[in-house]
């Protein structure tokens, strides 16, 4: 199939491993799914901190289940990416470790307090839900299938995140103030989660033309704002004055993008932010520390002395 | 909690085996409910439940440190399953304590460090490369867990009997998980060396699983547990020693190991416990909610 044929046929779940897809499509789809899978892994570096901080046994259990779900999503997504035949999972994981692999901007900011839990689990995950719901209609069928399961589980995460936020905002005045402060710190990052408006993004046009992506950054962010600003206010959070959010003629919300720090965003996109170094470094360090386990598994699978060959 | 620093393993066996001379006097299987407990019986039952709950909670708390850090995606998922089961078991036992009048705060969040009676095995910190420690620790623990749950199947306390089966069913998967890792790592020279180092380090702490607490005689008299700690310890040794030796590991002689100063069961612990408790209670102390959130019937 050539690119023109792909564009003609582009639609929800239109293509799969049995289709002869052009290189350009396979590379674009791999880039997108790999980014998504990497984000599940690196989101886990933040969320695992909350398991230790969780102030109730039930919350602790819900949190560790969430982290496990994220690793499960990464597993699914790397598998979906492998169906494109461009990279193996090991290659993609190696790229994540060396700093070549990219992932969502919000996961480049290390966390260390429970007040940050709802910022990730409610707002960031809520934003991710907006995007992932539209990806159920992506043109690469294995990716769409992965989204069915991911979206189902993310629904629970967002609900738990909302419950954490509600509890914090019903706490003491000091707790409410800390939560508000933390929200103000995270709010611009969350708005940038969706990336810049369409014309500034590098890969958007092509991804939309071939049906990998079905909704623009701008539409996704506005749909997030329409849904989450009322929720934030319902729990007593105040939306910061900057970045300015305004209502458009059609009644939907939008953000003044000039109020956001795009230099930081693009530094993050290159894995070159201070927090990027910290998070990727943490990944590299922890994975190298247990490289001996993977090596010994490899030698076991090859058939260590005294064990029968696995293939026999 | 009063320290029983003068207790020795000899005392353990005397208390455990000699505490009840005539077991036919003990109440029948699942014959007791909350209302049937004598004041002394309730204190002993609480001692038993705290040992169980604390072991599970602290073990799980340590295991979750490996989430996202495990060597492969598959091992990450599998260990997370184990950790969640253990938290779930901790919740079973803490729930029983809450039925006896404790709050979750009293059980976990506001409980002084030296009131906790878990074995020191489960509180030890992990090194970044300590996957061998994970494998050895979970194996030693899971075998002990099976033995101890089996000893509770015919407990006299009905609410406990109700819950033992669920925990036992899950422990079988945990043991298989630990054994399959032992098998794989032991077949590689370098990895076996790491298992051996972990075993040398952890075995003395694992023995603290079998130290008696203050309430051992009461636990036996009331039939909360039918078997003595000494015979459970023997069964444990009879299982783990040949298995580990079968994988080419050298198991320290139980009677010759240098016993750690901290006994665990009497509330004395290693420094690692103080740090761990400080870390997991930090948010609770800071936010000061009316009560810890309960999510049953929701997403937990």
Short description:
Chain A is mostly helical and about 300 residues long.
Q: What is the helical fraction of chain A, as a range of percent?
A: 55-70%
Give the number of DSSP strands of chain B.
0
Q: What is the approximate shape of chain B?
A: globular
Rg of Cα set of chain A: 21 Å
- Secondary structure: helix percent of chain B: 55-70%
The topology string of helices and strands of chain B comes to HHHHHHHHHH
Rg of chain B to the nearest angstrom? 19 Å
**Class from secondary-structure proportions of chain B:** mainly alpha
Q: What key attributes describe this structure?
A:
A: 312 residues; mainly alpha; 2% strand; B: 300 residues; 10 helices; 59% helix
Write the layout of secondary structure elements.
The complex is a heterodimer of chains A (312) and B (300).
Chain A lengths: L2 H7 L13 H31 L3 H26 L6 H10 L18 H19 L5 H29 L3 H20 L11 H6 L7 H18 L10 E3 L5 E3 L6 H8 L4 H16 L1 H13 L9
Antiparallel strand pairs in A: 1-2
Chain B lengths: L8 H10 L20 H25 L9 H27 L4 H6 L21 H20 L7 H29 L2 H18 L9 H6 L7 H18 L24 H17 L13
Helix pairs in contact in B: 2-3, 3-6, 5-6, 5-7, 5-9
Question: If you had to describe this structure to a student in words, what would you say it looks like?
Answer:
Chain A has 312 residues and is mainly α. In chain A, 65% of the residues lie in helices and 2% in strands. In chain A, helix 2 runs antiparallel to helix 3 and helix 3 packs antiparallel against helix 6. The C terminus of chain A is likely disordered. In chain B, 59% of the residues lie in helices and 0% in strands. The longest helix of chain B is centred in the middle third of the chain and has 29 residues. The two termini of chain B are 32 Å apart. At the A-B interface, helix 2, helix 3, helix 6, helix 11 and helix 12 of A face helix 3, helix 4, helix 7 and helix 10 of B.
């Amino acid at each position: 199939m050539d690119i023109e044929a792909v564009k003609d046929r582009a639609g929800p779940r239109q293509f799969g491993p049995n289709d002869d897809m052009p290189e350009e499509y396979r590379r674009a789809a791999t880039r997108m799914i790999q980014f998504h899978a990497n984000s599940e892994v690196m989101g886990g570096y933040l969320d695992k901190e909350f398991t230790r901080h969780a102030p109730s046994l039930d919350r602790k259990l819900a949190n560790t289940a969430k982290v496990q779900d994220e690793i499960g999503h990464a597993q699914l997504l790397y598998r979906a990416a492998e169906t494109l035949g461009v990279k193996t999972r090991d290659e993609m994981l190696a790229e994540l470790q060396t700093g070549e692999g990219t992932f969502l901007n919000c996961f480049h900011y290390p966390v260390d307090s429970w007040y940050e839990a709802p910022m990730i689990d409610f707002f960031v995950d809520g934003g991710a839900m907006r995007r992932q719901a539209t990806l159920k209609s992506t043109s690469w069928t294995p990716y769409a299938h992965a989204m069915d399961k991911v979206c189902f589980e993310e629904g629970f995460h967002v609900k738990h995140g909302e419950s954490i936020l509600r509890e914090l905002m019903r706490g003491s005045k000091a707790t409410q103030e800390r939560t508000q402060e933390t929200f103000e710190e995270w709010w611009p990052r969350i708005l940038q989660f969706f990336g810049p408006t369409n014309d500034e993004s590098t890969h958007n046009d092509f991804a939309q033309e071939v049906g990998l992506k079905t909704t623009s950054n701008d539409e996704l962010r506005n749909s997030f704002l329409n849904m989450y600003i009322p929720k934030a206010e319902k729990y007593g959070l105040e939306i910061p004055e900057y970045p300015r959010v305004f209502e458009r003629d059609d009644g939907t919300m939008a953000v003044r993008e000039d109020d956001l720090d795009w230099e930081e965003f693009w530094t993050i996109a290159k894995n070159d932010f201070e927090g990027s170094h910290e998070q990727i470094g943490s990944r590299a360090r922890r994975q190298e520390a247990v490289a001996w386990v993977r090596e010994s598994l490899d030698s076991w699978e090859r058939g260590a002395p005294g064990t029968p060959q696995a293939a026999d | 909690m009063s320290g029983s620093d003068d207790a020795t393993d000899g005392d353990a066996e005397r208390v455990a085996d000699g505490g009840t001379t005539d077991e036919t006097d003990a109440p029948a299987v699942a014959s007791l409910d909350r209302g049937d407990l004598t004041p002394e019986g309730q204190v002993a039952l609480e001692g038993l439940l705290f040992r169980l709950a604390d072991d599970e909670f602290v073990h799980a708390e340590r295991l979750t440190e490996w989430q996202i850090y495990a060597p492969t995606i598959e091992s990450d998922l599998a260990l997370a399953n184990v950790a969640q089961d253990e938290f779930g078991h901790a919740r079973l036992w803490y729930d029983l304590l809450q039925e006896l009048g404790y709050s979750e705060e009293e059980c976990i969040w506001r409980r002084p460090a030296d009131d906790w009676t878990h074995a020191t095995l489960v509180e030890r910190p992990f090194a970044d490369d300590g996957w061998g420690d994970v494998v050895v620790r979970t194996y030693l623990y899971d075998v002990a867990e099976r033995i101890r749950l089996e000893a509770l199947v015919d407990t006299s306390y009905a609410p406990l009997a109700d819950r033992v089966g669920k925990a036992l069913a899950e422990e079988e998967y945990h043991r298989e998980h630990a054994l399959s890792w032992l098998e794989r790592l032991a077949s590689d020279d370098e990895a076996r060396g790491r298992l051996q180092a972990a075993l040398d380090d952890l075995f003395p702490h694992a023995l603290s699983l079998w130290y008696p607490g203050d309430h051992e005689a009461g636990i036996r008299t009331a039939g909360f547990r039918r078997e003595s700690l000494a015979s459970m310890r023997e069964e444990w040794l009879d299982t783990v020693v040949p298995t580990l030796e079968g994988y080419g590991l050298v198991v320290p002689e139980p009677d010759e190991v240098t016993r750690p100063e901290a006994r665990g069961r009497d509330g004395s612990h290693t420094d690692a416990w103080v740090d761990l408790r400080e870390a997991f209670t930090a948010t609770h102390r800071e936010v000061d909610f009316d009560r810890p959130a309960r999510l049953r019937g929701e997403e937990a």
